[in-house]
Amino acid sequence: MASVSSTVGIDKLAFYPGTLKLSLERLASARGRAQNYPRESLGVEFRSIVPFWEDAVTMSVNAANSFLTDEERDSIRLLIVGSESSFDNEKCLATWVHRFLGLNKTCRSVELKGACYAGTAALMSAASYLSSGAIPLGGRALVISADHSQAHFRHAQEFGLGAGAAAALVSHSPRLADLDPRRTGFATIEAPYLLRPSMTEEVGDFQSSIFSYFELFDEVVENYRFNTGVDSPLDSFDRLVMHAPFPEMPHLAIRNFLGGKRPKEAIHELFTTKIAPSLEFARQTGSTYGATTFYGLASLLAGGFSSGSVGMFAFGAGSHGELFSLDLHADTESRENALELKSALTERGELSVEEYEWSERRRLDLVGVKDAAIEAGAWSKVYDAHYLGRKRLVLAGIKDYHRSYEWS
User: Fold this and answer.
1) Euclidean distance between CA atoms 310 and 277, whole angstroms
2) Which of 90, 150, 305, 386 could in theory staple to 300 by disulfide, Cβ–Cβ 3.0 to 4.6 A?
3) pLDDT at residue 3 is higher than 60
């Protein structure tokens, strides 16, 4: 019988924010809006873009490949890839990811869909799995969240989209953060506001989804209070990371939740002190979907917060979500990875609005096709600058619907 450890949590984190970006000031001008609209109304300045030779598989591998040692690869017994950006209705994304990460064959691999809740659902599932003793001491789980936008040209939500991937190694002896799967609040309230009815479309009511977020946040906080006996959960955390489809969203949610219960000055103080420090990277990426909470944690690490309690709120349209707590340690490697993320955001190549639109359309054109050659062509300069010789996984071609990949 496997030994059971009472401690599980996140051993370390790594990130892949894509290699390209789009200025949302430029996009606003192209869409006939005031240039300061994205920054002033949504709190975002850039959005991450992945070129057409990337997909959820390449993003997952590029997030995790560089931070795993050979010993860690061999010890992983559970791989969960959370994504709403799959291109196949049957084959599991995680099988490709497992192959290109070189993981041990004795490994369960699962793809999980849950809108922007998928990354947290994967993390909590992995933590519970380790806590149960299903993985012996010394075994680990790897959780990855990877998503990119669909083409959403000239819609209100275009300014809140983005791309990004994050990887979390989960173990019985976590160096970064302890996670107690029992200290959590969760809820599900069916709502029809945002949908991907096909693998090339994304539709919904952006405004209504905001109120769905408000409603679910109220429910999970109350459930956290009930499950843990903590009277005031938000006050119990040193920092609070909240799902940020755009950086202003957590601010709106906190004002809605505490409005009429506390003075405006107190609400502002709570937001400024506990929540705002987690939003720095979101201003540069736009939505990173299921990886948003991990990027929020990275913002805290890069900003120097390395020890204390962190509340983590994840929300997925549909709607479902969870509030859980992490006890953060002073882990040097994960802070270095967070600082590397900061550098990677700076190093992204900037696209024009026309280039962004062409690349998004081209990537969607590759979904569901039987055969396709993937050639950089006019984008050779982008490939040479951000991929050539960097050992990043890229889509090499499609034959009889099967995708093949290669290292750059």
Assistant:
1) 12
2) 305
3) no
